Amino acid sequence: MAKKSVASLQTGSKRLSKAIKMIKSPKTGAYTFVEAIMDPSKVSDFLAKK
């Protein structure tokens, strides 16, 4: 089961988004969270790739 959270951030004239993705470790089976701040147009690509 995947969980995603996207919050929008504004700094000056740039608009940014923070994306959080859960990734399951193949070794232990534990979930870890990966966070990234990026342009809103690149969020779907970040969430789609494994």
What does this structure look like?
- The chain has 50 residues and is mainly β.
- It contains one helix and three strands.
- Strands 1-2-3 form a three-stranded antiparallel β-sheet.
- The longest helix has 6 residues.
- The radius of gyration is 13 Å and the shape is elongated.
- The model has no long low-confidence stretch (mean pLDDT 81).
Outline of this structure?
The protein has one helix spanning 43-48, and strands at 4-11, 14-24, 31-38.
Keywords:
50 residues; mainly beta; three-stranded antiparallel sheet; 1 helix; 3 strands; 54% strand
Architecture blueprint of SSEs:
Blueprint: E1 4-11, E2 14-24, E3 31-38, H1 43-48
Antiparallel strand pairs: 1-2, 2-3
The total beta strand count reads 3
**Protein structure class:** mainly beta
Runs with pLDDT <50, length 5+?
Answer: none
Strand content: over 45%
Largest beta sheet: what is the strand line-up? 1-2-3
Elements, N to C (H/E)? EEEH
Query: What is the overall number of helices?
Result: 1
**What's the shape?**
elongated
Mean pLDDT: 81
Radius of gyration: 13 Å
Biggest sheet features: 3 strands, antiparallel
End-to-end Cα distance, whole Å, is: 14 Å
* Range of helix content: 10-25%
